[in-house]
Structures are given as structure tokens and as C-alpha cells.
């Protein structure tokens, strides 16, 4: 049936609610809230000259509308946020990056508390620190805490689980006091937790002094390895503390929000997170569909989208300008937090300086990187979201590790490991492996060896303080293999034997050795070949393949060089290295005359003549 807009406008109720605009294809193109539905919806179809270009364009595409009546304007606001996130309407301001931020949680609501990372801020008796903009920072803090204080990592429930099992490995290597076997009383354990709370609150002077004393005592006792460990711990404490640079004098928890816009309709919003009186992080966003939306409306909608997607709301939010529906938004934030949230638009003083700093940072980002950010968001976080949807998983692909095997007819098999964090290659974490236990071209056995070695290093580096760190002390969010069912089975068997729970995904290739689909949990998942997610998978596959081939080629080249020079009588390992360092390659050595060869460190007349004659087929 043809939708009669004029007739339907007359039927609108004088109630609060949410209205939904649809186009001819019945796609939702806009969602809005209203205190009085009748008045708000009618405004779109009256006096179009006063509307912005964006609104006029949107109205021209409305084929029909519908509405949902709510009990209050606050309910309408909550429902509006839900529908916008669900449908991503074309003409609504959208916040693509709706990730939740990590916190450090000290479980004071448990007997013998733990320190863990969480993305939920619950109203329990635990103590939360954050939010942090980087999960890596949270993990660094927690790992440092476990190096300093011997508190438990397990999930046992006390007193129910006391003395049910023997102490775990962490007790035997001095990383836990084993409250599970009543080897420490609750009072002494809680003293360690008090130290943890002071550390997380930024009170590190006393801790640093204590560690320095222990370092000195270890040095005096000639325990130099132990002293070096204390030294490294002190440096780590200072480094993490220095990340929280800018002091705030009054409210200990606040968010500062500034923004910048340009004539193209692009917008960057910058947020500074202040916790415990210090800036613990910052984040910028590029909301979509801002167009010529007024600042007050854009900022109001951004706040609603952002704080409906984060588990934590601070006591104070400082803004660059006033927002529409101020009382409504303020009331919603206060109700969500469970206590009053102050929204301020400062005109002078410290708060004004903070919001100016946020605005200036937003302007810099917009001027220098605006177009690149949008492009990079699509290539990285946008691509990861597409892969997550294809895999039908809630796992955040923060860190992807990918592996590949390379050999020439079974000769000199090698493997590569490449790492992508947040959709970008992290080359400092790339690793190479020579296959040691497998003879011939057995990719499955070779992959099993590599995975075993990589995750054995993980267990050693995270449990044994004597083991030298080599960058294997982090687990990936997911492993992507350049192969199918056979590779996945080989890897999962190793991980299961080691008790490590990391999901594994295969990159299935076509006849041209190009990724055509993903194999996850026994089922192939396809992506649009033109999507950013597919392009990211191709980059990962190309990178891991390139890295393996380069390493294999390097080893082959080294073996050839070694074999040629080794055949020259009187030229040992030292002179071979000196020749290669001096000339760079075999062709340069071959073309050198005797005098040039004698100029190499360690070469005498006899050695130089031996090399010269060798390359000219002459016998010495």
C-alpha cells in the first residue's frame, strides 16, 4: 500500500518516543527521539527552507515512517541509541569505534583478591582502575604487579577450595604465596594487596625505595642477577608511572572532550581520560555523517553514542560547547552511573585550559591526518570488524599471529611468524625458525614443531624469572595459518597438549595460492573479495609468505657462500668472515687482485694468493 505521509502525520500521538524513517527500499535511514512525537516528526515536513542541507536531503528520501511510544523521554533516548547501533542509519551521526575500554580490577569482593583485566565496570565491591586506551598497557601493569607481589592468578573460590589441590607452578617458582594451601594468612596477603592499590593509584615512591634497598642488598651479597632483576623492575615502575604525565588539581576522575571540524563536513572528537588526577590516556574519533549538523547536536549525539558503549562514566565531563537536550543527557548519564554526573562548559581557569588542549589536539589530527584516519580506520579496525563478523565471533582481534613454512624440496625447512596488532604489522615481534626435528617436506610436522617451540617460550618467559625475555611472553588473540584443515589440526593438537587456549583460523587458498576463504571451527567463512577485511587477510598472507621466503633465501645464500670459501686451503672461518665483511659478496672477492686481497684484515701474501689463484683455477 502507498504510505500517505500527510494522513499518518495526523495520527501521531502527543507522547515521548522514537521515530524511524525509511526509504523506498524500506531501509532505515534515520532514527530520532522526541519529547512529543507529533511536534517533532511534523517539523521535518514543514518549512523546508529552514532545514540544513543534510535534513532536506534526508527528507527527500523518506518513503514512510514509524514510531515507538515510550513512557518517558529518557526511555526514548536509550531506545534511540540502541536502534542507531543496531541499524547504522545513513543520516545519523555514527560512532564506528564502539569498543569498550579495559580496566584493571582488584577483586576486593573476594577472599585473597586477584588483579585482572576486565572490560566491564560492575557495581560490585571490587576496585577498578582505568579506563585505559591500550590493552597492552593494562597487561604490562598486571605483569609487573605479579613480578613484585606474590599474589594469586588462579580462579579458585575461597574458602571452598583451600587444600583441595597441591600448590601450582607459580608457588614453586616464587610467584605466589599459595593461599590455596593456607601457606599465607589473610592479613599478610592483604598487606600485599594494599601495596598493589598504592601502585595503581600512582603512589610509587615508597615501592621504588623498597626495591632499591633490595637491589643494593642483592648486590652486596654478590647476587648480581637478582640485583639486575630488581633494577629492571624499578625501571619498569618508573616507565609506567611516567606514562601518566599531566597532573590535574581537583576532580580525580573526569573526561575532557574537544572537537574540530572542516568545511568538508569532517569532524574529529578528542577525549582525554583523567583518572586519579592524571591523564591515563586519550582517544580520538571521526564520527560519520556530521555534515552541517550544528555543533551542539553533533556533540550531544556523540556523547550519547560514546557513553552508551563504555562501561565507565566519570563524575565530571568537560565539554567545548553546550549540547542539545542538556538536562536529558545529564539525567541519563547520572542514572547510568548511579550518582550525579556534572557536565561543564568552562569559560576560564584550569578546566578551560584542558578543553582547549583537547580541541587543539583534535584540530591537529584533523588538519594533518583526517583523510588518512578515515582510510586507515577502514583498512585496520574496519577490516578487523569485517573479519570478526565473517567468523561470527566476539573475540577482539587485537593481536593476530600468522605462521608459514618454506622449503625447497624438503631442503633447509624454515618457518616465519608475523604479528599484526590492531590491523597493522608489528615487525618488531616477527620471528624466524629453522626446523630442527623434521626431515623432508612435512609441513604439518614442521608447523607442529614451530608452535611447540613458540608457546614453550611463552610458558618459560611468563613463569621462570631466570629465562631471558625474547618477546614471546604474550598470547595472540587468534592464530591465522597459511593453510587448511591439516595445518589447523596439527596446531590445535599442540596447543591442547600444552593447555593453551588460543583460537586457530586457516586461510584457505585457491589454485593461484590466493586466500579465498577462512576456515574456522570446521566451517568455511567467505568474505567479499573487494572488502577491507579480505584485503587485510591478503596482506597477512603475503607478509608471512614473504618473510618465510626471504629467510629461506638468506640461508641458502649463506650456505653457498660458506661452501665456496671453505674450499680454499688456508682460509679459515676468521678469514672467510673478514673477506665477506670487506668485499660484501663473492663476485667482488672473485674479481679482486692480490693487492686488494692483502688489504683485508688478517690476510697475508700467501692467503691472498691462495684466494686469487682459487678463483682463476690455478693450483697453489
Question: Can you summarize this structure?
Answer:
This protein is of the alpha+beta class and about 625 residues long.
Describe the model.
- The chain contains 20 helices and 19 strands.
- It is globular.
- The strands form 4 sheets. Strands 12, 13, 14, 15, 16, 17, 18 and 19 form an 8-stranded mixed β-sheet that branches.
- It has 5 domains: 5-87, GIY-YIG endonuclease (3-Layer(aba) Sandwich), CATH 3.40.1440; 103-202, no CATH class; 254-369, Ribonuclease H-like superfamily/Ribonuclease H (Nucleotidyltransferase, domain 5); 388-556, UvrC, RNAse H endonuclease domain (Nucleotidyltransferase, domain 5, 2-Layer Sandwich); 567-614, Orthogonal Bundle (DNA polymerase, domain 1), CATH 1.10.150.
- Strand 17 and strand 18 (515-520) form a beta hairpin.
- It has helices at 5-10, 37-44, 53-60, 73-87, 135-148, 169-172, 186-200, 205-220, 224-242, 295-307, 326-337, 349-379, 381-391, 443-463, 485-498, 532-566, 573-583, 586-591, 594-598, 605-614; strands at residues 17-22, 28-34, 64-69, 103-106, 115-118, 127-129, 254-261, 267-275, 278-285, 316-319, 342-344, 399-408, 411-421, 424-425, 431-434, 478-481, 504-509, 515-520, 523-525.
- It has 620 residues and is an alpha+beta fold.
- Helix 4 crosses helix 11 (326-337).
- Mean pLDDT is 82; it is low at 242-251.
Amino acid at each position: 500500500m502507498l504510505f500517505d505521509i500527510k494522513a499518518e502525520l495526523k495520527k501521531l500521538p502527543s507522547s515521548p518516543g522514537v521515530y524511524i524513517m525509511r526509504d523506498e527500499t524500506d531501509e532505515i535511514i534515520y532514527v530520532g527521539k522526541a519529547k512529543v512525537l507529533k511536534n517533532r516528526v511534523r517539523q521535518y515536513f514543514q518549512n523546508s527552507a529552514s532545514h540544513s542541507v543534510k535534513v532536506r536531503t534526508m527528507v527527500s528520501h523518506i518513503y514512510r515512517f514509524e514510531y515507538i511510544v515510550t513512557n518517558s523521554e529518557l526511555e526514548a533516548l536509550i531506545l534511540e541509541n540502541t536502534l542507531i547501533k543496531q541499524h547504522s542509519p545513513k543520516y545519523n551521526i555514527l560512532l564506528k569505534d564502539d569498543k569498550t575500554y579495559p580496566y584493571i580490577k582488584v577483586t576486593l569482593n573476594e577472599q585473597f583478591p586477584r588483579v585482572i583485566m576486565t572490560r566491564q565496570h560492575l557495581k560490585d565491591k571490587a576496585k577498578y582502575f582505568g579506563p585505559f586506551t591500550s590493552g597492552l598497557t593494562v597487561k604490562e601493569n598486571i605483569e609487573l604487579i605479579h613480578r613484585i607481589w606474590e599474589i594469586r592468578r588462579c580462579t579458585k573460590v575461597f574458602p571452598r577450595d583451600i587444600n583441595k589441590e597441591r600448590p601450582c607452578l607459580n608457588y614453586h617458582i616464587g610467584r605466589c604465596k599459595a593461599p590455596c594451601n593456607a601457606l599465607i594468612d589473610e592479613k599478610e596477603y592483604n598487606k600485599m594487596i594494599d601495596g598493589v592499590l598504592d601502585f595503581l593509584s600512582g603512589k610509587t615512591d615508597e615501592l621504588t625505595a623498597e626495591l632499591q634497598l633490595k637491589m643494593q642488598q642483592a648486590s652486596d651479597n654478590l647476587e648480581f642477577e637478582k640485583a639486575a632483576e630488581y633494577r629492571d623492575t624499578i625501571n619498569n615502575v618508573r616507565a609506567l608511572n611516567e606514562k601518566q604525565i599531566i597532573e590535574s588539581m581537583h576532580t580525580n576522575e573526569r573526561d575532557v572532550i574537544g572537537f574540530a571540524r572542516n568545511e568538508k563536513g569532517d569532524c574529529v572528537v578528542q577525549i582525554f581520560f583523567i583518572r586519579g588526577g592524571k591523564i591515563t590516556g586519550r582517544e580520538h574519533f571521526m564520527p560519520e555523517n556530521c555534515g552541517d549538523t550544528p555543533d551542539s547536536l553533533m556533540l550531544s549525539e556523540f556523547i550519547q553514542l560514546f557513553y552508551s558503549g563504555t562501561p565507565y562514566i566519570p563524575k565530571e565531563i568537560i565539554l567545548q560547547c553546550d549540547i542539545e537536550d542538556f538536562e536529558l543527557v545529564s539525567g541519563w548519564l547520572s542514572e547510568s552511573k548511579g550518582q550525579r554526573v556534572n557536565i561543564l562548559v568552562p569559560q576560564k581557569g584550569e578546566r578551560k585550559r584542558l578543553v582547549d588542549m583537547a580541541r587543539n589536539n583534535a584540530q591537529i589530527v584533523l588538519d594533518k591526518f583526517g583523510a588518512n584516519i578515515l582510510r586507515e580506520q577502514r583498512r585496520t579496525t574496519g577490516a578487523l570488524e569485517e573479519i570478526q563478523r565473517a567468523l561470527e565471533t566476539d573475540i577482539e582481534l587485537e593481536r593476530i599471529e600468522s605462521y608459514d613454512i618454506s622449503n625447497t624440496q624438503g631442503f633447509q625447512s624454515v618457518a616465519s611468524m608475523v604479528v599484526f596488532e590492531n590491523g597493522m604489522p608489528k615487525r618488531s615481534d616477527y620471528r624466524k625458525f629453522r626446523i630442527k626435528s623434521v626431515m623432508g617436506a612435512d609441513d604439518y610436522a614442521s608447523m607442529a614443531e614451530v608452535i611447540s617451540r613458540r608457546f614453550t617460550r611463552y610458558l618459560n618467559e611468563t613463569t621462570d624469572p631466570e629465562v631471558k625475555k625474547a618477546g614471546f611472553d604474550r598470547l595472540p588473540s587468534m592464530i591465522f595459518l597459511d593453510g587448511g584443515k591439516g595445518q589447523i589440526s596439527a596446531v590445535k593438537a599442540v596447543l591442547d597438549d600444552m593447555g593453551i587456549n588460543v583460537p586457530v583460523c586457516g586461510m584457505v587458498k585457491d589454485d593461484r595460492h590466493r586466500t579465498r576463504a577462512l576456515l574456522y571451527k570446521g566451517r568455511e567463512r567467505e568474505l567479499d573479495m573487494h572488502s577491507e577485511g579480505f584485503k587485510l587477510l591478503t596482506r597477512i598472507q603475503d607478509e608471512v609468505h614473504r618473510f618465510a621466503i626471504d629467510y629461506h633465501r638468506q640461508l641458502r645464500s649463506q650456505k653457498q657462500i660458506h661452501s665456496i670459501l671453505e674450499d680454499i686451503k688456508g682460509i679459515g672461518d676468521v678469514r672467510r668472515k673478514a673477506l665477506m665483511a670487506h668485499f660484501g659478496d663473492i663476485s667482488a672477492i672473485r674479481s679482486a687482485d692480490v693487492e686488494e686481497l692483502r688489504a683485508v684484515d688478517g690476510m697475508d701474501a700467501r692467503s691472498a694468493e691462495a684466494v686469487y689463484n682459487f678463483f682463476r683455477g690455478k693450483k697453489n
